[in-house]
Amino acid sequence: MVKGLGIDPGTKSFDIVVVEGDKVIWEKSIETVDIARNPSLIIEAVEEAGEVDLIAGPSGYGTPLVFNEDIIDPEIFSTEILLLTKKEDIAKGVERGELGMAVYDALSKVVIEFWRRKLPVCYIPSVILLPTVPKFRKINKLDMGTADKMAIAFLAIYDQARRLGVEYSETSFILVEMGFGYNAVIAVGKGKIVDGFGGTLIHTGFLTIGALDAEIAVAGKVWERSDVFYGGVATITGTVDLERVVKGYLEHEEPFFTALEAMFESIEKNVRAMLTVQKNPKEIIISGRLTLITEIRKIIEERLGDIAPVTKLKGLEGAKISKEAAQGYAAIAEGLAGGFFKELIERTGVTKAKGTVMDWIYHPRLKHAKESLRRAYEISIGKDTLKRMGLT
Questions:
Q1: Is 212 exposed, middle or buried (0-12, 13-18, 19+ CB in 10 A)?
Q2: Which pLDDT score is estimated for 205?
Q3: pLDDT at position 76, please?
Q4: How far, in Å, CA of 204 to CA of 265, rounded?
Q5: Cα separations (Å) of 243 from 235, 236, 239?
Q6: Which residues contact 194 (CB under 8 A, 6 or more apart)?
Q7: Sign of torsion, CA 310 316 318 323?
Q8: What sign for the dihedral angle of Cα 137, 143, 144, 146?
């Protein structure tokens, strides 16, 4: 049978999963800070996992499907395309001890190491690159759900179809993904991802500030890549201790109550806004590290239960420690290799993604950024692949 391996580059940990058919047969979790110090830990884990047909590598903000052999310059590909940043910015953030930049540093090193070792790796799209999302919904957006959030939605389509005994074409839900760094709300109809609010489009995540008032952006004058990791619940409360924050919220202690209330209400607003696109979802499916906390899960269920039944994403059979994103990555790899998930790959349009994540931005201030991203593709990817991506 076909085996696919997936890697989720989480803020707290990198999860590695091997899927055979629709079952997890091997999994491992490694602290992100450890991988940043020693990226060979991922290589060792991949070797420990055994022979697989395809690996879906950590894909950041996403790219049209790219295979390892398509890459000419892995450093530029990993930093400027997958992470939309420069290696100098990553180095500065790591030096300052920023958790988010440790994730970026680890991801970049892993991509480079995979390329050096010529492993069977591919990199996958984010939500905005999928052809199933109408162009008019993409205008002046970038983060409609990063590659890991797209992978979770992919897994959720399978999950609902299996639980409810329906075809992929009959699935319908709104996914609420609550991670340690970012949240996301993604709409699925008829087995296709049709819209999404990514972590920087939802106001107030646990780490990130999320959606930002343009007047605030103007007042800030100069912003750095690492700024996206500040302004959320952790900044407001002055701690990344989830238990402390939840305890303070439940006891109506400030600033914990205000911080978490802002996050909960922003999620609810985005879910209700998504009803414009997905009017009668069969379910609200929740996932992510924060939803493992009983109190948070109950609050989300209470806020959203009148829309549709709220259910936790179950994931694949055999999974015990791996997060949903890693399972989704592995399922995508398995499907791309022609296995059990091949039909869902075709339905979701993963192989048909084209362009760059900045193609739908029209503000003149960002003209240079769009051009720089295109140049990064031209420098780091082979010409035949660029043509397939619609970038020539």
A1: middle
A2: 96
A3: 97
A4: 9
A5: 15, 15, 10
A6: 132, 133, 134, 137, 187, 188, 277, 278
A7: negative
A8: positive
pLDDT for 13 equals 86
**What pLDDT was estimated at residue 3?**
98
Give the model's pLDDT for residue 7: 96
Using CA of residue 130, residue 133, residue 135, residue 141, what is the dihedral sign?
A: negative
Query: Smallest Cα–Cα separation from 232: which of 204, 251, 257, 212?
Result: 204
> What per-residue confidence (pLDDT) applies to 103?
81
Q: What is the pTM of this model?
A: 0.96
The string of DSSP codes covering 24-49 is EEEEEEEEHHHHHH-THHHHHHHHHH
Contacts of 40 (CB under 8 A, 6+ apart): 113
Cis peptide before 255 (omega within 30 of 0): yes
Q: What is the pLDDT of residue 35?
A: 81
| Residues 355/82, Cβ–Cβ less than 8 Å | no
The beta strand positions in the chain, using DSSP E, are 3-9, 13-20, 23-31, 54-56, 66-67, 121-123, 172-178, 183-189, 192-197, 283-287, 310-312
C-beta separation of 118 from 247 below 8 A: no
Confidence (pLDDT) at 348? 98
45: tokens are 């884990």
Q: How many residues does the chain have?
A: 392
| Domains with residue ranges and CATH for the chain | 3-388 (3.30.420.40)
For residue 126, the model assigns a pLDDT of: 98
Residues with pLDDT less than 50, the chain: none
Tokens of 143: 């983060």
Whole-number Å distance between alpha carbons of 129 and 132: 9
Nearest to 8 by CA among 285, 326, 258: 326
Residues 94, 106 contacting (CB under 8 angstroms): no
| Whole-number Å distance between alpha carbons of 77 and 69 | 12
| Structural tokens at position 386 | 């660029």
Determine if residue 265 is left, alpha or beta; phi over 0 gives left, psi from -120 to 50 gives alpha, anything else beta.
Answer: alpha
